[in-house]
Each structure stands twice: as C-alpha cells, then as structure tokens.
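Subgroup meeting minutes
Present: P.N., E.W., G.H.
Scribe: E.W.

1. P.N. recapped why we're keeping a running log of single-chain structure predictions: easier to compare across weeks, and new members can see raw inputs and outputs side by side.
2. G.H. added today's entry (326 aa).
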Amino acid sequence: MKTISILVLNHAVPAAITDARYAFEKVNDFLKARNQPPRFVVQYIADTEVVPLQGGRISIHVDSTLDRSPKSDLVIIPSLAGDMLGATYVNREYANWIAQQYKGGAEIASMCTGAFLLAFSGLMKGRQCTTHWQYANEFAYLYPTVNLVDEKMITDQNGLYSSGGNNAWWNLLLHLIEKFTSREMAILAAKYFVVDIDKDMQSPFIVFNGLKDHDDEVIKSAQQYIEANYAEKLTVDQLADKFIVTRRTFERRFKKATRHTVSEYMQRVKIEAAKKQLEMGRKSISEIMLEVGYVDIQAFREVFKRVTGITPVEYRSKYNNASGNM
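Output recorded in log:
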C-alpha cells in the first residue's frame, strides 16, 4: 500500500485537490473490480482540520494534520491560485515539512503553480521543474537556481515531480499511477478520465506575452519596437543603435530582463504572430511565413517546431478547421 498525502493549502485550487484524490481512489476501484487489493491510501493533510478555500465558499475537512500524519510515500502539492508570491508566503510553514518528508523517503509532486512552493522548499535547486507557462518568467526570477523547463508537460527527477499548466496535472497523475501500479492501470485511468496519455510538451499551448514584468525601461521599449515591427529584417546592431546602447550591453540587459536573447525574442514574436494567423485566418502557410518575416520555408518550419513542439501544418490542424495550402 502506498500512502498518498494531498496537501490542502491556503489559496489552493480545489479541483487540483479533488482530482488527485479521485484519480488514486478510482484506481483502487479498478483493482477491486479485478479482485485485487487496493494500492493506495489517500488522505488530505493540512496544518488545521478545516481549510476554507475560494474566500470561504468551499471548506475542506482533512483526514490528518501535519503534526499527526502517518509516513507518506507520495506528497502532492496542489496548484495555487492568485498572486504566487503571496500564496507561497501564506503556505511557507509547509515548506520545511515537505523537505523533511522528502528526506524521510517520500516522493514529492507539484501540480501546476504548486511548483512555487516546491521550489521554496529548496528541493529543486539544480533540478528540472515545470509550471504553468503564464508564470514561467516570475518563477525563473524568484528561483534562478532551478532549471525551469516550462515547455515540458511534466518533470521526473529523483522522486521529485512537477506538471505544467492547469490540466497538465492529469498527465502527472497518470504518470504517477503508472509508476506505482502498471502501464495497464494508467491506460485504463486515461480512458476513464478521457485524458490523452503520454503528452510530454505544453509548448503548443504557450501564448507568448512579451515578458515585460521587469524594470528596464530601455529594454521594454525595445520589446515594444520588436513587437510592432516583427516582419522587418531587424538586427541586434540596429536595435542597439536605435536605443543608444552598445551591442554587448544591450544583449546582456535584454537577456537579464526577458530570459531570452534578442534573436530568440524576435523569433518568439514572429512565431506568435504566425500562430494567430494559423488559428484565425485562411492564408496559406507560405503567405503567413512571408508576412511574419521569413523567406525560407524550411527555416520557418524548423523554428516553428522548436518553439511550439509541432509543425505549422499540425498547429493549423489542431486549432483551425479551415484548411490551408502550402
């Protein structure tokens, strides 16, 4: 039997808490139907017996409190809502408990923005971690020693797990079910919950918003200029000259503020513009390629796939019913 402890945190997303319990208990049902013993003991844990959520509209009664909880085999940190810095701060007392559980042999899994509390515990230093793509820049700023791989759907390193945005927690739950039971059980759970199994990238879902939550006004102006002129053949030297900064200083400040090199940023802006055209328009992929500033179809395909994880044709098929021609 594996003891699964689901933390009921302040500012937690209720669905993350209930989905986790439902998934593991449903696997117990599957096993029972096959005359096999249950595999999981699932419990809600918090620092108090009742935790109000969503401004008191929901209250969750826990099975055990931190000071009297049995040894856990797996601790699940649910997704957090609202301001991440504030949500982490109000749950800071859990961080040491999480770290002690891991040192005692438990595995730890964070769902979506629960990664902020997992990183706060200190366990992710030097390790890979993913989270909701919308919070990636904030996460990277707060936890620079963590290897953020926000393009990934889940990470799995040394008994530490994380998942990407929102419903990616289902991919994490299926991954954990397979690890603790079998591939067969994971497939059965995927079919029951109608979840695609083995998704490994959240890149196609990422919306590039410009990463402007920094205080370098020169770089913000440069970002706005790039976004307004992405179809032009801009160079780093031209941008540095325009904003009266040496190329070396401009590149250093740009990377520090945005987490991207200037060239990477220009590529991301171009690809985001192409994605919108593929989603909404009826132009051919070749026409879209030219409009966003590419002249080589192979180069465009390669960059598009590197950024989104899929080809332009696959992206159009996924998000637009209208057919397009090459």
